[in-house]
Amino acid sequence: MKEKFLIKEFVEMLHFDFKNISNDLKIELNESESSYSKVWKEHSSKFDNYIIKNIEEFENNLNIFLNETTKEDISSLLLKDKENLAELLNTFDSIRFKLINNDEYNSKLEAKCLEHLVKDGCAIYKSLFSEEELAELLKFTKVIEDVLNVDIKKAGYVNVQVNQKGQITNIWNSFQKVDDGQLRMQSKSVGFFPPGSEVIIKNKSVKSIFENWYVNSNCNFHRTNLEWISKSDTSHNGWHLDTVRDQLKIMVLLNDVDLDAAPIFCAKKSHLNNTEIKKETIHDLFVSGHRKRKEGVFYKKHAAALEHRHVGYLTDSDTDNLPANINNDPIEIKGVVFDKLVGTGKAGDCIFFESMGFHSGNRSTDKTRKTIVLVVDPVNTSFKNKFIDKFAGKVGV
Ligand SMILES: [Fe+2]
Predict the structure, then answer these.
(1) Nearby residues of 303 by Cβ (< 8 Å), 6 or more positions away
(2) How remote is the CA of residue 63 from the centroid of ligand 1, in Å?
(3) Rounded to the nearest whole angstrom, what is the distance from the C-alpha of residue 198 to the centroid of ligand 1?
(4) Residues lying with their CB under 5 A of ligand 1, a single-atom ion
(5) Ligand 1 centroid from CA 234, angstroms
(6) Which CATH superfamily is domain 108-389 in?
(7) For the chain, N or C: smaller number of CB within 10 Å?
(8) pLDDT, tens digit (0-9, with 9 covering 90-100), for 25-75
(9) pTM reported for the whole predicted model
(10) How far, in Å, is the centroid of ligand 1 from the Cα of 28?
């Protein structure tokens, strides 16, 4: 109990607006830990009125308070007990969620989307993009489909060869061993964003949702993943969480997706760290990082069973990684029932989801799902991510 209290107080102190309170109350403040600590001890009761919203200010507080000794103490507390890590993450979240709930959005739909993200960790924003807006991107996907022909329906990675003039001279699928129907074209492997994706990147609502989610007005998109999920009896992805850090993703549907076209599933409210299975899984990932493979019972036909994946994945005894019927029913994960967001919709609809919550791919039972997923650079995003970065090397992440 005492440890959880200490962690909560430490995180709050990191968010305290020392500059403003010292100006308002005419307190003397110099850039030393003793001076900052004195202000905190005397005025922490005013915390709710003095929360910083600026990442540079947060970094300044981090530099003041997080010396090597404190870092050692905190990392041993976090490694020792999943409750301590949950307390840390939940304190960061509850402060950030207070800041997200403001009235300064461009549109009511953005506000609604963020409200759902805070509440459920996922949201569907219908008709965010029109057919005209997606035309260039769709034209590009058509080129890939025409060149790959029947190979478009086989699992693997799209590779491209580009000449010195920037023209594409060759496109091919480097097949993967297991045909789970997932073909990917990732910006990190081809070296560019697909033509037409700037419509998504420059969209005001998308920008506003990401900036508000992270409380950071300087979010830059750095990865895209264009995907085709075609008919297969194997699911391309079971239930898992991506990371310990905050990582919001936007998935834009590029064609109509129904239950037989491998819609993504998200477990609502699993972005919060208030269930045993979530606390366990995120703690395993925090301790071991992505290098350690998940052990346990895997026997169904899905990628984590066939290829082995990191400890953020759930076993087939924890949950149903390959549902016989793909439907809107809730999902049970180790005794906890979560309502699902099911990523069905029309071309141009968008799914925003926090990927540190549980989500799952699916298998297509009929049609091909065509989508693009974008993420911003996780290094310069939320205060929580800045904090976790300081522990890299000491812990698994
Ligand atoms: Fe994922």
Answers:
(1) 178, 180, 182, 234, 235, 236, 237, 238, 309, 361
(2) 32
(3) 23
(4) 242
(5) 17
(6) q2cbj1_9rhob like domain (2.60.120.620)
(7) N
(8) 999 999 999 999 999 999 999 999 999 999 999 999 999 999 999 999 999
(9) 0.95
(10) 48
